[in-house]
Amino acid sequence: MIALAPVPIIGLASGRFLTWIEPKYRGIRETVSRLNSRLENNLGGARVIKTFNRYEFELDRVSDQSDHYHDEKVGAIKIRRAFFSGLRIITGLVFVAMLWVVGSDIITGSSSALEAGVVATFFMLLRRLYAPMRRVGKTANKYQLAKSSSERVFGILGHEPEVTSPEDAYVPESVEGHVEFDDVTFSYEENETILNGVDLDVAAGETVGLAGTTGAGKSTLLKLLPRFYDVDDGAVRVDGVDVREWDLPHLREHVGIVEQNPYMFSGTAEENIAYGDLSVLSGDDESVSDAVVDAAKAAEAHEFITDLPEGYDTEIGERGVKLSGGQRQRLAIARALLNDPEIVILDEATSDVDTETEEQIQQSLDRLTADRTAFVIAHRLSTIKDADRIVVMEEGQVAETGSHDELLRADGDYASLWAMQAGGSVSGAATADD
């Protein structure tokens, strides 16, 4: 009975240990995640930190996260040490008690049945019994550590996407590019309406410029087209079919996007362009796909790429840090050209470049939008003045629509914005433009 006394004690202690250690391990994972996020932000924003001399400020923020991690880690270590030490003490005390009882019987001769060999065998078996009992603690510790880690992993893997393809999804044989926004209402959060009853019908092959003040809903409206979000009310249709009925990957294959700050992957210039159509990668390190080169030439990117140290095989760094903003834009345009979509979205694609670079990018954008349905968002109205139609948005609604000349004659919001950017009156701006 004495030899088996630790069994229920160890069982109860293991249960309590799991209860105490679980929140500690969860806290460790959460603090590590926050610390990694902080470090990633600091590395990515190193230039901004240097510019504003915020080294000490960021150091304090990293130190705070590091201290939280240290506290959680120390708390877990203390619980583990207390638990494992307790296991050794319990089994050790029982072992000593058994030695005392058996030894006393042998010395006093009160138990003649106990011979030296029997006693030795008994204690050897007792040690074998207690060894796995102590390992139960280590196993419980590893289990809880793995559980806290797996909760985060399976939490991400098990997250159901909000936007998915329906059963029997629509997959057309060809796409023309006719786009309709029918009484579209949308909000990111409740009671904060971003779009309110937007109606817009865009013919296939038409170029539409979107203008308006910051926060008017221009970018949000176009995020609904490739179903980054779904409308709250109304419908978005492509070729007469609600985008919610389309096969999602198929829909997005036909929508090309060039953003203000295009994302570049860590890899070569060729790999980043070929992301638009992975089938063009030859797998031959000695040659570059003709399709990639053609797309780069059309995007006015071929010349600067060939000037790079290793040409198309040059590593451009994480997020394309080895390239200028204009070079990243042209790579993004080449990527979109290679994808050859029927619908193109240009979101402030030339806002952060100099005049010479803007002219080069504009030439490549003209090639990208040719014979395609194009949506062009621009604060710089000169970028969209030649669009087939200009739509002015204000507070989530369509305020004005028409050609550049028509909107100037209407003397509304667009005319005011144009005069402000042109540095004169509406009539003066119109005359100068003519």
TrEMBL record:
Top-level taxonomic group: Archaea
Sections of the chain in a coiled coil: none
Entry keywords, A to Z: ATP-binding, Membrane, Nucleotide-binding, Transmembrane, Transmembrane helix, Transport
This protein's GO CC annotations: membrane
Name used for this protein in its record: Putative ABC transporter ATP-binding protein
Subcellular localization(s) per the UniProt record: Membrane
Domain ABC transporter: 179-420
A GO term for molecular function: ATP hydrolysis activity
